[in-house]
Design brief:
Four copies of one chain form a homotetramer.
Chain A lengths: L1 H22 L12 H4 L3 H27 L5 H15 L1 H10 L4 H29 L4 H5 L4 H16 L4 H15 L4 H13 L1
Helix pairs in contact in A: 1-3, 1-4, 3-5, 3-9, 3-10, 4-6, 5-6, 6-8, 6-9, 8-9
Chain lengths: 199, 199, 199, 199
């Protein structure tokens, strides 16, 4: 039963993440001419698209590992999960805004704010899963804020502020955070491996 | 067999709900300037987005609990389910309309009308599931219109009318209904728990 | 193995049908005023939307019953299925065109042409499934063109031609065909029931 | 465990591919008149749509066969899969661009470039699956670059260059490659059949 509930939560989340990652392309306005010159002003938008695609991919990956490590879910987990999807659902919007106003500090800051709220929502989801599975669960023993999560939050706050100095600072920070996350969360992976051994 | 049918009904509904909850963001027009001033006129739209996101989330959650409590489905259930999805599919449209015409009574009323029809469709789906599972099923014994469903319908009717007095009245009512539903349906949850015990 | 393949074919088809049925709402342009008068010119579009929503729902329902009755799938079935999804994918496009040009014969005809091609594609999919499952399979014994399928094709051809006399003729025909199909295919349902008995 | 991971990877990929194949239709602008003359300038766009629909279908089909032949997945496979989805996600964008600028070499070349990068990404995904399953796995023994994959890459490079001579050369090449791929990959199919026998 509990596994079935988790499966449907995963399926719904996968559906939402699949739509988020794909509809971003609808924000790419097709150039009005068939020339390379018409494509050139789109380069910031294309880079923002690639970055956001990576971030949604990272969240899908981490979400997948987190849920896999968790045993059961309850009502609080469901709402914590929707709260995460809420902030992720703004990524197409902020991506399009930052891509078309690359040198304005506000869109660059708002982009970081959305990433920050998504990171907070992910931590809340992890906490709700620990509560649902009890303090002795594998997840509880392995979880908790780790260095990567803390580094991300610090980086987002720095990027939100840094955008008012120069927007390229924030852009560099976002790309650096994405790179750091491309490595999957070893702690959760090892928790799964151990849980497999125990069966 | 029956479980497989229910699984595909759930999968299709999850797919539709995932698209509904996500494409709403496409209705958010990206501001034409990179300033906070350009974002300010979007605040009503963003609040309407957050509210509608919550309502679709509530429907996903309640749909999930209802189907989980039900054993089998038949042709009538399939059409009752599509009827519910039909009214829910208008949420991106009415959200965008109400967000851009916040002080006009008609969009605010039409928003409530869509929520009302969705609530009616949800009740019809519940009834069709009870019929498909027989009067002695767990679902039949636990189901029926409850206080929260009646309160919602009364609130929607009040909000549809109240919009012609002042649109903020309706807005407050919609937020209040959403808050009331954030608590999951305990009756259905307990039905599932009992059904698990019986196995 | 065969069941796993069918499951993924169903999952992909459900995904495509869920997106088709939902993105149609994006073709509904939000009225530029918050009045009933601004909503009135949208009535044809809204009716076309409701009709197309019903048709996609019918296809989902029939697709579900057809695949459920079938045992295995092969490469030809995969392409026959994609061919069906191809014609169904045009429904949002033709719906929007017919809704905004209600009295022009061409959009009304093209709408019927898309329904005709979808019906042909559904028959081809059914044939490919019969071939994949052998002449002695339950599907083969129960399948074949039935009265409802033949009536639909005749009706679509009549509506394609009738649009050039008066577009309301075609509109009436499309609604009549949709009504006829709201009743699920009893032959396939009984094949499934028999197949269950045999196990 | 490993199979569950593969299932979720398949489900997410199916979701993304279902959205890609379906949202392309949103790029088809509804004609402003209800006449055949208004539809005529859309013919290149419609042909580009049909071609891209076929390519996404081919990728879904081959992806399905590749994953089916593979036993387990790891973190590298997840990112190789997202990398493939990244290039495929541009198909709606390049389709729309090439459809509206049929005689310009740049969009026709960029279309081929996206197909080329998708083909490279598919090969990288296949390699990562072989690495994850070991050199003695069925996949490893059957996989490796085959004639069809090499022919496709050569054809894409020729079409990217050929567009600067005449765009119809590239268009013919793309249709020829699509035709070649409509036949499913027999090697992987036979690997699956053998793997079934061995169980």
């Amino acid at each position: 039963m509990r596994t079935l509930e988790r499966d449907r939560l995963e399926a719904f989340s996968d559906g939402v993440l699949a739509v988020i990652i794909t509809i971003m392309v609808l924000e790419l306005k097709v150039p009005h001419a068939g020339t390379l010159a018409a494509l050139k002003p789109m380069i910031p938008t294309l880079l923002a698209y690639a970055l956001s695609f990576t971030f949604v991919g990272i969240y899908w990956n981490n979400h997948h590992h987190l849920l896999r490590a968790a045993g059961g879910i309850d009502g609080t987990v469901m709402w914590a999960n929707l709260h995460l999807l809420f902030w992720l659902s703004f990524i197409p919007f902020v991506t399009s805004w930052v891509g078309t106003h690359l040198t304005d500090p506000i869109p660059m800051s708002v982009y970081g704010f959305d990433l920050l709220m998504s990171a907070v929502a992910f931590s809340l989801l992890a906490s709700s899963l620990v509560r649902a599975n009890g303090p002795d669960s594998l997840l509880a023993r392995q979880s908790g804020l780790d260095a990567k999560q803390i580094a991300s939050v610090v980086a987002y706050v720095a990027a939100i502020a840094g955008a008012f100095v120069a927007t390229w600072i924030s852009a560099v920070v976002y790309f650096a955070v994405a790179l750091m996350w491309l490595v999957p969360d070893r702690r959760l992976e090892s928790a799964i491996v151990e849980s497999q051994k125990g069966r």
